[in-house]
From TrEMBL:
EC number per UniProt: 6.3.2.2
UniProt GO molecular function: ATP binding; glutamate-cysteine ligase activity
Listed name of the protein: Putative glutamate--cysteine ligase 2
UniProt key word Acetylation: no
Length: 364
């Protein structure tokens, strides 16, 4: 069974006003006192906090760990006078709060406003692979399906007090990095590493840590890292995304071992599919990875389930995944919930406060 680990980036906010708070240093200090220093870390901006789960093979254990670390993050934030919200962008106005340090200083100097506005929170899923060769074979084969994962996770409709008309505006902001987004088929680990070396060699990127592909080989672990998703408002959506990612990796690895060819719709089409997913979420048409034509969101999600059905069945995740998809399509993802809360309350502050409560309380 392939192991799965999740990294979630959370927004630090004022518990009452919902306004962003650049308190990551203080929160990390409390985390260290509580013995959680190996779980939490800072991000580019002081209003962000990241945690990482341990590798898990049982999705129920992964769910318990995500819920636990969200609650721990909330406790540490409360000690620092803040709250945590699983929101992929701040609905309320926010200014740059870039953390000190050589790396962050370099990013600020080189990328200017792009770095200053990168106050976005994503969800990264790591799945174990046996080798770089298997990992690149997986990356080549999962490319068309990544936009569906983005659509399912969308959780950033608001930016600087405005409804952006996107379900994931985070994906639009994140795409400003020159190394972000979908990539070509590599064909081998050697070609992958050669491309990465050439990109770093341009001097435009500081190091391999700035390879911001939608999916990449991890530089630190024997995993592929899928980075396309927004941080999800509900932890159960995070678990669903992780479940589908593991099944995608297993399905791709089986196809590679069986010698099945790689579907290559081209980077241009993949960029359009990603844009459509970020725009629509689950509330309008998406681009179906099988046909690369417009299709209903529920049909596209159903196509993903069909594509990975055998792997889900073998891991014992088929029924839970089907149930979770049905629930998500019925109740909506974070983008829909945020808009519904805002329509109900008429207040972005109250909406953020409710999202912070849900983040620390666990699944609704």
């Amino acid at each position: 069974m392939r192991s799965v680990g999740v990294e979630e980036e959370l927004l630090l906010v004022d518990a009452e006003t919902g306004e962003p708070r650049a308190l990551s240093a203080a929160v990390l200090a409390f985390a260290s006192q509580g013995g959680d220093a190996d779980v939490f870390e800072s991000e580019l901006h002081g209003s962000q906090l990241e945690f990482a789960t341990h590798p898990q093979t049982d999705m129920r254990e992964l769910a318990r760990e995500i819920i636990r670390w969200r609650a721990e993050a909330a406790d540490h934030a409360a000690n620092a006078g803040a709250a945590v919200a699983a929101l992929a962008t701040s609905p309320l106005p926010i200014g740059p709060s870039i953390n000190p340090g050589e790396r962050f200083d370099w990013l600020k100097e080189q990328f200017g406003l792009t770095a200053q506005e990168q106050i976005t929170c994503g969800c990264h899923v790591h799945v174990s692979v046996e080798s770089d060769e298997e990992g690149v074979a997986v990356l080549d084969r999962i490319r068309p399906w990544l936009s569906v994962l983005l659509a399912m996770s969308t959780n950033s409709p608001f930016w600087q007090s405005n409804d952006t008309s996107y379900s994931s505006y985070r994906s639009r902001v994140w795409g400003r990095w020159p190394s972000a987004g979908p990539v070509e088929v590599f064909g081998s680990a050697a070609r992958y590493h050669a491309q990465v070396d050439a990109m770093v060699g341009t001097g435009a990127l500081r190091d391999t840590g700035m390879i911001y592909f939608d999916a990449r080989l991890s530089a630190a672990w024997p995993t592929v890292e899928i980075r396309v998703a927004d941080v999800c408002l509900d932890a159960s959506t995070t678990v669903l995304v992780a479940t589908l990612v593991r099944a995608l990796v297993e399905t791709a690895a089986r196809d590679w071992r069986a010698g099945r060819p790689v579907a290559d719709p081209g980077v241009g089409l993949l960029r359009l599919a990603a844009w459509r997913a970020g725009r629509s979420g689950l509330d309008d048409e998406l681009i179906n990875p099988v046909t690369m034509k417009p299709d209903r969101a529920d049909s596209v999600v159903g196509a993903l389930l069909a594509h990975v059905r055998e792997a889900l069945d073998d891991s014992g995740d088929l029924i839970p995944a089907q149930d979770a998809v049905a629930h998500l399509l019925k109740t909506g993802n974070g983008a829909r919930v945020q808009r519904e809360l805002f329509e109900k309350t008429g207040s972005l502050r109250e909406m953020v406060a409710e999202c912070a409560r849900r983040t620390s309380a666990g699944p609704v």
